[in-house]
Amino acid sequence: MEIREVTQQNTLMVRLITSLSRISEVMKEVYTEIGTFMQHRGIEYTGAPYAMYYNMDMEALDLEIGFPVTAPVETEGRISNGTIPGGKIATTVHKGPYDTLEKTYMELLAFVRDKGVEVEEQWMYEYYLNDPAEVKPEELLTQICYIVKKES
Predict the structure, then answer these.
(1) Over the Cα atoms of the chain, what is R_g?
(2) What are the structural domains of the chain?
(3) Distance separating alpha carbons of residues 56 and 132, to the nearest angstrom
(4) Residue 105 pLDDT grade (very low, low, confident, very high; cuts 50, 70, 90)
(5) Of 118, 145, 6, 1, nearest to 64 (Cα)?
(6) Is residue 82 within 8 Å of residue 13, measured between CB atoms?
(7) Closest CA to 94 of 27, 47, 140, 48
(8) Pick from 100, 96, 90: nearest CA to 124
(9) Is residue 111 within a helix (H) or strand (E), and if so which, with residue range?
(10) Could you report the per-residue pLDDT of 44-53, keeping only the tens digit for each?
């Protein structure tokens, strides 16, 4: 667990509302849609796929799903240009199934509280560092990131 400075990243993304029960299906659909869009236009990925969560309403998650890219491009349909903000973040990597992420989230929030750091708790993002279609659930790597609002 650490607090570090990151630079802003351009993204191609889709923002939508979905329930937690549908999140895997929705993510697969959106990543495929954006990946196909990028492939047809020769746009390269500059980082791991991500999801940004704007609330924690499990029945109506306000969610942004996408990929980091070099620069904004002309988009179509529901695909838009976006950014992952730069600045200080509190971050850690979770190893294991997605349904065990909550424990790591709680550990990261305890870490920042112990450091006297205030983070944006209703708004966070994750990078998916490997593919659930290629590794066992216990080998999944998810980087959790909270935006730092204030350091003591």
Answers:
(1) 15
(2) 2-151 (3.20.80.10)
(3) 23
(4) very high
(5) 145
(6) yes
(7) 140
(8) 90
(9) helix 101-114
(10) 999 999 999 9
Q: In this structure, what token pair is assigned to residue 102? A: 């909550």
Residue identified by tokens 């500059």 is: 46
Q: Using DSSP, state whether 112 is helix, strand or coil.
A: helix
Confidence of residue 103 (pLDDT cuts 50, 70, 90): very high
pLDDT tens digits, 19-33: 999 999 999 999 999
**132 dihedral zone (left: phi>0; alpha: psi -120 to 50; beta):** alpha
Residue 140: count other Cβ atoms within 10 Å of its Cβ.
Answer: 20
Residues 6+ apart with CB under 8 A from 80: 12, 13, 14, 15
The answer to whether the CB of 63 falls within 8 A of the CB of 15 is yes
pTM of the model: 0.93
CA–CA distance, 100 with 135 (Å, rounded to integer): 16
